[in-house]
Design brief:
mainly alpha, elongated, about 60% helix, two-stranded antiparallel sheet, Helix Hairpins, about 900 residues, Rho GTPase-activating protein 4 isoform X1
Length: about 900
Amino acid sequence: MSTHGKLRKAEYDAQVKELRSQLGEQLRGLETQAEAKQQLLQDLGDFLRRKGELELEYGRGLERAAERLGARLREHPAMRRGDQDLPSGLQCCQAVLLQARQAGREHGALGEACVGPLNLALAQLSDDVGRLTKKAKELQQRSQEDLLAAVAEVQPALRTYQGYQAEALSAEAKLREAERQEEKRRGRPNPSSAPPGPPAGVGAKTPRRGSMTKGERLVEKRLVRAQEAQLKAAKARNDYLLLLGAANARLRVHFLHDLDHLLDCCDLGFHTGLARTLQRYMGAERRARGGPLGRLEGLDGAVRGLDPSGDKAKVMEANPSAYCLPPSFEYQPHEGDEVAEVVAEGSLRAELSQRLQQLQTRLSALDLEKEELSKTLQATLGSLAELMGTEEHDGLELGIQESQDLTPTRTPPGKRRAQLQETESFYLAKLSDFLQDRSIQAKLESKRDQLQAALKRAASAEKLGRTPQHLRCPRPLSQCPGQGFPSDLETFVQSTGEPIPLVVKSCIRYINLHGLQHEGIFRVPGSQVEVSELRNAFERGEDPLADPVTPISLDSVAGALKLFFRGLQPPLLPPELYNDLIATDQLPTGPYRLAQLHAVLSKLSAPTLVLLRYLFAFLNHLSQYSDENLMDAHNLAVCFGPALGGLPPGTDPVGAQPRFDAAVAALVLQPDAAFPAPPALSGPVYEKCMALHVDDGDCDSQQLEGVAEEGDAPPGTSPSALPISCDDLPMAPGPQRWWGRPEVNGARSLIPHTFPVLPECASPVDGEFKNPPTETTLEPSSRLRVDSSGTQGRGTSPGRRRITHFTELGHMPLSGGGRGGLHADRAEPKSTGDRQGLVQTFTEVDKAVSRHMTSVFQELRGRAALKPLGAPNSPPAFPKE
């Protein structure tokens, strides 16, 4: 990684660390606010309890004083006589006595209310605050985990984008080098063909057709690969930008909207419950004092001034480091990449258009769901307010005679509180769904806006005629004999040498290109007819998903992939590993659990691990689009788990399958930690950005490069000879084509595609053949070998190399026409005579090939003697056309 990239990585890590610290402060802030509220309620409860004790003591004191006064008054003579008309002074004393007794009873009732119901209401309110804070903290942790997950998706996407961008730059550099070499070859004079009279550099010959053709083919191949690398880099950049925008949108939603709801959730019922308790206290005070009291007006105004929104704003203002919106994550382009927006050019336009339609459909469904959840939350809040306004302590034990109000239609206090808690739980569950839907909606809306802007720019550029077209080579159905739906994976790998079967590679590539955002992938069943057609095509060795003419249902492709894994015997996760896998489900989530999963999977064979690593990397990539396809790790495990492993005999599938699916879900979430990395386990690795494979034709790129750059070999070096295999070597177009580059005494050349077959009686007369030679074609299935043993044989001289031509009996690929031509049928010889005749024919052909190629190599050695091949700027020694 460059210094610039390391600095950007350090900035990103510091920003994520700061965000985690800020989210941690929010959680601690919830706990601090809850502790402050509970402490406030506890202090108020202690005060009311002490006041209640004093009021009770005061009431009892008044009653004792009233009893003593009453005893004194009963000893008055008028009272003893039982006079009806008592003296006025005695009547005043009796009035004082009645008032004292009434005051004692009222103070006793106020004391009992403060010690009992009011204190109990505050204690229950404190418990409600603790319970709601705990649930709100769980909601906030989910919201934070969702936010951090959205942020965490950005960094792998950035690394993927940088990797593909580096590959694109490398491919472009190779293309420029090939173009430079081709231009150099086009303008280079050929000294061997120049006339002897004029000086060097005058009258240069036109570049040779064979070299020119192969150089052009190298340029074309590198152009195709460069465009494919650019396409992959563009797709990776688009994914990175979309995920970056979604992460920033999720960040804004959390700080601007979710925190409001979470703080409201913590305050749910607090202000209402406190107001109801204080109102009951003021009512008890008024009754105890015998009417309205001016000193209670201040308390009444404070109760009426309880403001949940204002308190929430003050909390957020008091903690700006925890609740202020942090800066958004910035786009980090790769070195040399000037594109900073989603592009929808060329073949990407159709893909992004389809994805935009899927996003709009998903957003429409989310809007309806969110609207229903909003209505449900409003109705539930109304029910909560009604239940909180009719608590069991209203008017009870406060000196109010409400026994007549306790009718059978009134809900019992215990049942009413249980109903209140049940309504709270329902409200919090719906609030969690609402926050989750709003989070998904924010991320999808960000992606939708970016896609719409990209498609709009592409449409505008198309109107101006500036839309570049990415090359997309048509590819016919590939023939891959021996592949299809194997039942035993290890036997298949040993027999074919293919670590990933064609059906797996093709289906995964098709889903990667067209179905990562497809809703319900692997859950919605496909058409059985299409699945059967796909299977039959793979069984025939064809790849029906390689640029198909007619679109194929993604659900059918997913069904064919599951059908393949379901048919493996033994399954990839055999029943013998079931107990070990489900044992990991009991472990806490973390590095230790992943280490145990890694240890369990290490018991599998290498071919199985390679295929599982490839599959679970794909499933992990698919789960990253769960906001759009609704298939998270758990859903994928439920749909894919039964196809990957079998349960031990006698196991109850109802209870065993969910535990097995949980282990599979852990593998989907962390495939990199569960499976060995490529250095420890060699084999193919899943690529997140794919493109239709460009048909490599009949030539390997390294061989093409060697042919094209042969004339630029360093001084003092001799290019190594390649094995002459007509299956691997290119065949240039034109009337004269060439195979391979054999080497004779340091001089190399191309083998001609066609050569004359000379009959034994053929001899030149006056420069012409009596019997014209027949041109015989060397088919790609032939094999040529240079025999450099130096052994003398018939028709060879000492030290001369001999070209031997090998074919299979009964599968002779040579064909000729006309007089002296040879023709070999592809059918097996039916008799011994036929077989001997065919062998004699092959011998004659080998002799003819040997004679012709010997003359060619003699000419090459003569050219090499004039000027060594390793000399600077020496042209390659090609045979004359």
